[in-house]
Amino acid sequence: MQSSISSNLRRLIALICIGLGVSVLLVFKVLAAKQVDERAREDSQFATAAVSSFIKDQGDVLRSITTFMSTTPRVRMLVESDAQTATDAAEELRRDAGVDGLEIVDRNGKLLGAAGDAAGDDSPIREALAGRGWSGIVNRGGELLFAVSEPLKIGVGEDAFVQGAVTSYLRFGSDRAQEFKQSLGTDLVFTDHGNPVGGSINAGGADLPKAEREPVTVSLADTDYIALYAALPGSKPADHEGIVTFRRVDEVAGPYKRLSFAFGLILGFLALVALVAGSIFAKGLAKPLDGVVAAARQLQSGGWPEKFHVDRKDEIGLLQNVFNEMTGSLKEAQAKLLSMLDLDPLTELHNHRSFRERLDRAVEEASADGGHLSLLLLDIDQFKAFNESNGMAAGDALLREIARLVRAKAPEGAVVGRYAGEEFAVAVPGETLDGAEELYHRIRSGLQGATLSAGAATLSIETSGADALLVAAELALSRAKQLGRDRCSRFDSTEDSASADALELQRYMKDASVATIQALAAAVDAKDPYTQGHSERVAQYAAELAEFLGESPEEVERVRKAGTLHDVGKIGVPDAILAKPGRLTEDEQRVMMTHPVLGELIVRKVPQLEDLVAGVRSHHERWDGKGYPDGLVGEAIPKVARYLAVADTYDAMTSDRPYRKGMDVNFALNEIEMNAGSQFDPEMALAFARIIRKSSIRKAA
């Protein structure tokens, strides 16, 4: 059961109130979290600064004390004393110096005496025995100590020599952490690899942060703290020695929580008031709107409601009037749409959808009869320029005139449609390529003020279908435009070959797998008996070159696929030209030069191969701009196409032809090197010559 308008309005008001409240509460929560994080960072910065200052100040003091001890005669004499005497003296010196630990070693690093907290760490001692003072943090069995080590020298000036070393220590433990807490007002714990080694708070067993990342929440004794790690000043990152500061979460976030609770109470009261007021308002609107709702439901179910009797002057009355007008317009529009469902409104020919449906039926009928079917695609040349020069009204008039001509010249039983914006299609059952071409000339002869390009195709219905027929006609149309427009091109000159090629294309459009790509390339190569395996070799050469020049594995594979498909447009080139045993005439060469654009048309129809389009279209461009189809110069040529250009030319030169034998490998490579910077990308050309002479590609050749 559907809710009433009144209920929906009350529900809407309630949702708005709740949404507003939740939004504000979320804002408070975000602000609280931000404040907690900022406070944690401040605590960490202050603690780090305090510890750093302590290390510096105490380091200076400890260094002075240690240096003084290392220069006293008493300590120097201990080098020659027995172990017990040195140990007793070390304890007395430690107490006098006020340090937590003291070590004295001889010049060989042997311990003479130790007192208090001694680390037993060789690092500071080695530095001192080398004649250099050292200070820093050391680890003694999980406890951190600040150490200063100074050499014990005998003699003066350049004659002095190191006789031993004196090392003093200060603890970094819980006592030190308590001192920092008194001055900073925040708890902190010294850590080693994430383990607490002393602090102002008991953090044993807690999962403490081990790296300088975002603040984290840590629970200690059923209390939540916000904790942040910072590296201990003077320590190395690999030591993982740090300071973790702790601040109670409720201490920072408490004011925000109390404010959120107060706001929630106020918002609840306001929501209650809004619901009461909304109910009164909704009740006044519900009754007059019930009729509109009921009429809308009737319209939704497919019926046509009666017109409203409007006696109101307010917005409700306006709504009823608009609904009456809308219902009437919908009735008229429905009647018009039903009458024009299959027709293009401008030309009154079948629209694209309707034409495709009728073409499919024509294919099925011809297949059942064992007949043939021809298709003619017509395209107005430079229609955009015509519109810009003569105006949109003149363009529409031209479309209607061509539609009239096509309808008048097409034979009985033909299916005629407006296939695209300025494209027309004519499907003629039982017709041949000759008949389709004759139809084009009849239509063209009656047209004034514009020209038409056309593509004609005919397929054996037993071996192919509507999709292949359309693709074949599109290829022929594209070739006609490439050859200068105002002409009709036929898809190949041999019906059986054309059928096979279109069938391959149809499979290709439905399955863009690597296996299908290779099969399609093989079909292209098979059209020219003198270039069998050409696409596969070009793909291999180009991929080897891309890999040699450091391209990623993904880019190498893209180059390989583009190489496999680079000549796919030759499917749209007549067999008589592809298989001609001698050199091509100028006109034949122009037809051959259309194959990059035809290849682009084919590859672009498969979305998952969009990244191969550039290589297929531009593989005959030249570095100096004298290539085709676009005359691109230098790095304006897509990189994948530049790889293919070198590989394609090399394979063409080294392959046998009916009118010449393939060139010697070294001669071909010399030619490529000579044309580096003119025909080819210079870096790629020279690299290709280098690798072809040295690699397995040359051996395979």
Note the main attributes of this structure:
flat, Beta-Lactamase, 4 domains, 24 helices, Alpha-Beta Plaits, 55% helix, single chain, alpha+beta, 701 residues, 5-stranded antiparallel β-sheet
Q: Structurally, how many domains make up the residues?
A: 4
- On the 0 to 100 scale, the average pLDDT is 79
Strand order of the largest sheet: 2-1-5-4-3
pLDDT < 50 runs, ≥5 residues: 493-500
CATH class of the largest domain: Mainly Alpha
CATH architecture of the largest domain: Orthogonal Bundle
Q: Using DSSP, what is the number of strands?
A: 15
Distance between the termini: 79 Å
Provide a count of the helices. 24
Radius of gyration using CA atoms only: 45 Å
- Overall SS class: alpha+beta
CATH topology-level fold name of the largest domain: Hypothetical protein af1432
Question: Strand portion, in percent?
Answer: 15-25%
What is the percent of helical residues?
A: 55-70%
Shape: flat
Q: What does the largest sheet look like? A: 5 strands, antiparallel
CATH superfamily of the largest domain: Hypothetical protein af1432
What does this structure look like?
There is one protein chain. The protein has four domains: 52-172, Beta-Lactamase, CATH 3.30.450; 306-339; 340-510, Reverse transcriptase/Diguanylate cyclase domain (Alpha-Beta Plaits, 2-Layer Sandwich); 511-701, Hypothetical protein af1432 (Orthogonal Bundle), CATH 1.10.3210. Strand 6 and strand 7 (195-199) form a beta hairpin. The chain is flat, with a radius of gyration of 45 Å. Helix 15 crosses helix 21 (639-654) and helix 15 crosses helix 23 (682-694). The two termini are 79 Å apart. With 701 residues, the protein is of the alpha+beta class. A five-stranded antiparallel sheet has the order 2-1-5-4-3. Strands 7-6-10-9-8 form a five-stranded antiparallel sheet. The model is unreliable at 493-500 (pLDDT under 50). The chain has helices at 5-71, 73-78, 83-97, 122-129, 174-184, 249-300, 315-339, 352-369, 383-390, 392-409, 433-445, 466-482, 495-510, 514-527, 534-548, 553-565, 575-578, 586-592, 595-604, 613-618, 639-654, 665-674, 682-694, 696-700; strands at 101-106, 111-116, 134-140, 143-154, 161-172, 187-192, 195-199, 216-220, 223-231, 241-248, 372-380, 415-418, 423-429, 452-460, 488-490.
